[in-house]
Amino acid sequence: MNRRTIHLIAAAVAAGALVTTSACHGSDGAGAGGAPTTTGPVVKQAVAMGTAADSIGPDPAVAGAKSGGTVTVLEPTDFSHLDPARVYVAPNQTADLLLTRQLTSYQYVNGVTKLVGDLATDTGTPSDGDRTWTFTLKTGIKYQDGSEITAQDIKYGVERTFESTLSGGPTYLQTWLTGKADYSAAYPGPWGGQSLPAIQVPNPRTIVFHLTSPHADFPFAVAMQAYSPVPAAHDTKAAFDLDPFSSGPYMVQSHQPGKSMVLVRSPGWNAATDPVRHAYPNEWDFQFGGQPLDIDQQLIAANGSDATAMTFDTQLTGDVAEQVMSTPSLLARTVNANSPFSTYFDINNKRITNLKVRQAMLMAFPRQQVREDFGGPLFGDYTNTILSPVTNGYQNYDLYHAPVTGDPVAAKKLLEESGDPHPTIVYAYGDNTQWQAAAVDISTALDKAGFNVVTRAINLQDYYDEIGDVNNDFDLYYAGWGPDWPSADTVIPPLFDGRLIAPDSSNSMLFDDPAVNADIDRINAETDLDQQNKDWAALDKTIMEQVPIIPWVDGRQVSLYGPDLGGVHVGFIGTVYPLDVYVK
Amino acid sequence: MLRFLIRRTLGAALILLVISAVTYVLFFALPSDPALLTCGKQCTPQLLATIRHNMGIDAPVPVQYWHFLSGIFVGRHYGTVDCAAPCLGYSFVNEQPVLQTLLNRFPATLSLALGAATLVLTFGVGLGMIAALRRGKPLDKAAMGFALVGASVQIYFFGIVVRYIFVDQLDWLPQPGYTSPGASLTGWAGGMLLPWVTLAVVNVATYARFTRSSMLESLEDEYVRAARAKGLRPWGIYIKHAWRGAMTPVITMFGIDLGLFLGGALITETTFNIPGIGQLAVQSVANADLPMMMGTVLIACTAMVVSGIVVDACYALIDPRVRVS
């Protein structure tokens, strides 16, 4: 879940998404999956580690749910990838929930999320100081053709992620197994006939991963769809992306890229082995290409098959937001909950080296005005931290107590203390209407504090390329991030480890502090997850003392769904979760 | 006629070659990097270089263009991916050869184009003829008033309004969309009805005005006056003589419009979620899918060029005064 995903969200917003609505409420728990309010206290949403008993299927039933029917999914665009090796962004991950299974996965029961064994009997057994992880597979786990899922298939699925043509997926296991960022040089993938010795399969039901460094959160990493089983005999290489051989409850019946896709039940899937998937509907009918407003209108009207329609991640558009929020019958079928995606503003730490200037930027920043440009409270909740509430160990704090409207007087004072009361800064932004409006608000607020703001609009397609240039000549620019699993290990190292600075790296704020880098190594080496979570939270605060970014909002997922659907809520990926959905 | 067709076909091939070269340079010289878009969150310079190589975009633009041209005749390989001849490129967004996607999308565009064109010709030409016949009468004024309104509305406005009223509110029609007529003839007609009507309404207006003025002009021609003087029946003069003469410019315009429709009615397809060439073009731009953009441009150009040839050939059939030389 990356900054480009945030970019897509921003693009959706640009297309006319959320507007301010004074009638904004969190929706009811039944309809919205425990949706919190948008103005209340920040709530930690920890994910617990499940036991072997939790890992036994079937998934506890959703009250009132029944099997059968067809669910229509309306999306503006097709999924960019379905091949698990290439699946990373949230919509793709959500689709692959229906098509793949993993060693571990997330079980959602009555608002509580646990990591449990999925294909494996539990969440794995560590040894050698968390450098070696062993998993035992369940019996009776099968592919769409009824053949058994084996440990060798999981090894092959991981090995496929090394293939350079299968780009776009996460690289955690590849890096951890080889100890190299350029992992393809160490192992090119299985298509040339080579095997990866760091993964051993002593028998068809046991798989052992030998990592080059300790990783206590390894069970979370193997929950990513990228590390799903793939039988070598059914590896169709590039074509796998359109029609993956299913290990999940559904399989692809037809897929016309950009037009439509139909998923039907996989005959091999056995609910008794699956603790995280219900698979109530008989069929999923995906329709791609509708505009977000049209999707909203279809879901509001709910005629014909739209009564059982939903969307995975199309945000409620501004044109209908007020109507939906002020109509109880529509609000009752609206999800409104935190997503894991945070949007913040990078300060170019290579150019703005004076701490007082960075503090002044944060103090003067008009967070509220900019959020209004993006639709107000429905867009997300204000944050003062790096980590978001969906991260285990998250601690809420506010080091600077900057008002959300900005404090030009306090910022001016900080600038005077910095020795440069009128610094010139370049604010870069993607060129769309929302960011254009935000640029006016930001330059006005910062100018008021004494800055001379120069705004620089960048073509949206090129935005991340431009800010990813380590020699860019911008001082302030937006970016976004979502943790890949609820651990700060997937947030702080990729964003703030200065040793990872490279063209197009996630450390686009170009922050490099040897002390922080050392802390990252120290925390990563810890084997106690609880202690690790506490230390990440402490490091969050330590980093923010240097103000490398201006935290802005933790995003929300707000979407409508048809009245004849039940079990609809936002899931751990941050999109509308399909695995509990049923047709009434 | 055969020489004419051969000459026009060769000319069309040359035009397409020039257009493809210009388009290729324009698109592939853009600063956007499709490799970066597919590289993912944990992109490394090495991985990026490999993807660029696999996509075939690490070579100089002229070399890339040569690969593109030769691929049409002998096919291409992109890393582990094969694109058989005729290969118009490979979409790394759709993970499909461009031609396969274009062929997959073309039936929806063809349905939209032919349906709308039928309505346009029937009602546009019909209204125009009636208006010309009843010049200055209430029927003429009503027809031209409708034409004025039709010419003023925009597809993205009219389409959204009729969809909201007839689909979302009244539930009289199914959601617009494309269903193969082979799968369900009623589903096909029901889903395409609003797109046909919307695209037609905007164009009927133009055709009605154009036909009216052309007919009025034709009715003043000497051969028509001679026919009248010879005492031929008014309807015979109207249909057999004046109409045929008036249709030549209308057919010219129709040829251009049909070519445009077949190349993809971008706004109509986007407004009604018709998965045709026009919507594909919009999606390709949004996805920075350069090979697919290239493919949609080429198919649009081909549609224009072919319809031009057909229209030229039709002149002789419609108007005996015209001789293909």
Short description:
Chain A is α+β, with helices and mostly antiparallel strands and 584 residues long. Chain A has helices at 3-14, 29-32, 90-96, 151-160, 172-178, 183-186, 218-221, 292-301, 318-325, 328-331, 355-364, 367-373, 408-418, 433-449, 463-467, 492-496, 514-524, 529-544; strands at 48-49, 70-75, 104-109, 112-117, 125-127, 132-136, 199-203, 206-210, 250-256, 260-265, 283-288, 309-310, 334-347, 380-382, 424-430, 452-458, 476-481, 549-560, 565-566, 569-570, 576-577, 582-583. Chain A contains 18 helices and 22 strands.
> How far is the first residue's CA from the last residue's CA of chain A?
32 Å
SS class of chain A: alpha+beta
Strand content of chain A: 15-25%
Mean pLDDT of chain A: 88
Number of helices of chain A: 18
Q: Mind describing the biggest β-sheet of chain B?
A: 2 strands, antiparallel
| Biggest beta-sheet profile of chain A | 6 strands, mixed
**Strand order of the biggest β-sheet of chain A:** 14-18-13-17-15-16
Task: Please bin the fraction of helical residues of chain B.
Answer: over 70%
Using DSSP, what is the number of strands of chain A?
22
Q: Count of DSSP helices of chain B? A: 13
